[in-house]
Amino acid sequence: MKLAFSTLGVPGLPIPEVARLAAEHGYHGVELRAHPEEPLHPGVGAAERADAAAEFKTAGVEIVGVAGYARVAAPGDDGPVLAEIRELVDLARDLGAPYVRVFPGGSDDEPAADGDARAARRLGTAAEYAADAGVTVLLETHDSHRTGAAAIRILGPVGHRRAGALWDVMHTWLGGEQPQETYAALAPHLGYVQVKDIAAATDTTPLALGAGVLPLAEVVELLSRQGWDGWLCWEYEKRWYEGAAPLPGLLTAGREHLGRLLNESA
After folding, report:
1. Which residues, including other chains, have CB under 8 Å from residue 121's CB and lie 6 or more apart?
2. Which of 67, 166, 228, 236 is 20 to 30 A (C-alpha) from 34?
3. What does pTM read for this prediction?
């Protein structure tokens, strides 16, 4: 497995600094948060995209994915959601990134089946567009569909190789799902896995990997046993928790912790 971290942990950091951090601390890749407050997002031009891609290539660091905020199950017209995903796919294509992240974003004010059907329809359409760009759109286990069992209600009906799953270990754990249950549900669709650590279900402030309660060792052991060989991406949610320790000072220890887990499960 290859190791990456998300720029959610270093909000607003210039791209050359992100590439340098990844290379210096031994990470193979980076997940780029595609939000207007970040250096790279769908609104930037071709020159900035080319410069960023070159920066990462020079550093020997891969761009794992573009983390967008489109909500495929959200009520409303399909058009704006599909347009947002297309822009994210175009950005990923220009950067040479294989994946785009989207959220479920379903509503509690309607039957779950309605949101599932809407999300599957939109993902199916988005997957057709993404296929032409060589990109895969990944539905994250998050918000209204935080478990693998919930996510598969959307992904199952889509049935397109360019629509997949992003397993956020925290959300499936908060949803009461065991790692083996999540993997069984998502395995045919799994793009990559977001790892993190927190103190408790009631306190999701990000911690150094291994310092909290999330079943990281169990997840890594399970993935290794199943022969899965994708990305483990550390999503340290510094953007939402200003009091959390700065990520750069934790990066080397985090990589070493994941490395130990991988060695122990080999």
Report:
1. 78
2. 228
3. 0.97
